[in-house]
Design a protein that fits this description.
It contains 16 helices and 16 strands. Helix 1 crosses helix 16. With 373 residues, it is α/β, with parallel strands linked by helices. The strands form four sheets. It has a six-stranded parallel β-sheet, with helices on one face. The chain has a six-stranded parallel β-sheet with strand order 13-12-11-14-15-16, with helices on one face.
């Protein structure tokens, strides 16, 4: 029985990266019969000390560094403590967009250096969000492979890693389904026949895109139809920081944008209930992210950039005029309840393919690792 450990910052219901890691670990236990555990490196990566002493998280076992030292393989998600880095064959799990990782480093380089100096993060290497560190560590003999769940990302990583294993995106179809509770829009819901539209994954923008362009593109549509866009996954500390750009919307909102913005929410513990309550979800992503897949699985149609296979509607999100035209076309379909019901069912059908299951994903990882271990 293979003994593996996943190094990750444990953040239940607050981080897509963590939830993906947890599910991969769960799949390795259930389908591969591996002895898989997670090490919570939150304390180390924030400079506050040792891994947490918690023994499990929603049924998935957590390990300490003593247990980790006896593992056969390390899976690197967030960061590995320096004291055991390189002591076992290691696999880098490439979460998220490669180009976003590069941009994150460019934008945060000074800030990251300052944090390392202040918090003494030399005890661990925080890899996520640092292109330079990923490229550097890929050269070491003990780094055996990288894993990505998205075909589009594979060519980005291939020049650096000895092997790149392609898994597949997946979704818990029992949790994310049309039936179930629906969240309440407690902050300014749509009125008089308007749509409630959720906007998520807004942090996926690069330096070449305006982070508010969806709001600006939807402004006239929302005003004429009494629809509202509700923003999710906005960190509370950003909302409180009056210097942060989000506050130009929250605290200094113009009369025009007032007709556009509905609610402004941080992390929601039951995101499935949010997807069920929404009439539509908009995302700037061109990848089948957790947000896209989970919303579609709940029967919430998704409008995304071209190339997003799990979204039923597509347009050039970055073009405000095209976004406006797309929303008006979607609105007409939404008004015909029979047509919209079919689109909701078709949205779920996009993500229920058996080849896109957690089982198939961990089996692809197992097959890829057999070639390098």
């Amino acid at each position: 029985m293979l003994k593996v450990v996943h190094f990750v910052q444990v953040a239940p219901c607050r981080s897509g990266l963590y939830e993906t890691t947890r599910e991969i670990c769960k799949g390795q236990i259930e389908y591969l019969k591996w002895n898989a555990r997670m090490v919570d490196v939150t304390g180390i990566c924030t400079g506050s000390g040792e891994p947490t002493k918690q023994k499990e998280e929603r049924g998935i076992p957590l390990a300490d560094l003593k247990w980790a030292r006896r593992a056969d393989v390390f899976f690197l998600h967030t960061g590995i403590p320096k004291e055991i880095e390189g002591t076992k064959p290691t696999v880098y799990f490439a979460h998220g967009m490669p180009e976003y990782t590069l941009y994150s480093q460019i934008m945060r380089e000074v800030a990251v250096s300052e944090e390392i100096r202040k918090k003494k993060l030399e005890n661990a290497t925080p890899f996520f969000g640092s292109w330079g560190l990923v490229v550097q560590i890929a050269k070491y003999d003990w780094m055996k492979a990288a894993i990505t769940l998205w075909r589009r990302h594979k060519p980005y990583w291939e020049p650096y890693f000895k092997k790149v294993i392609l898994g597949n995106h997946f979704c818990d179809l029992e949790k994310f389904k049309p039936e179930g509770d629906k969240a309440d829009y407690v902050q300014r819901p749509a009125e008089n026949g308007g749509m409630n539209i959720t906007f998520a994954d807004h942090w996926r923008y690069t330096a070449f895109k305006d982070p508010f362009q969806i709001l600006h593109g939807a402004r006239k549509f929302c005003k004429s139809t009494n629809s509202r866009i509700h923003l999710y996954a906005v960190p509370k500390e950003e909302v409180r920081d009056l210097r942060h750009p989000w506050n130009s919307i929250i605290h200094g909102i113009s009369e025009e944008l007032e007709h556009t913005l509905g609610g402004f929410y941080a992390v929601h513990a039951d995101i499935a209930s949010v997807h069920r309550a929404a009439d539509l979800l908009i995302t700037p992503s061109c990848d089948d992210t957790r947000t896209v897949i989970e919303a579609s699985a709940c029967g919430c149609p998704v409008l995304a950039r071209h190339g997003t296979e799990a979204a039923i509607f597509h347009c050039r999100i970055e073009d405000p005029d095209e976004l406006d035209r797309s929303l008006r076309d979607i609105y007409q379909k939404w008004q015909d309840k029979k047509t919209w019901s079919k689109l909701q069912k078709q949205s779920r059908d996009l993500v229920t393919d058996k080849s896109l299951s957690l089982k198939s994903c961990v089996e692809k990882i197992e097959s890829g690792l057999a070639e390098v271990l």
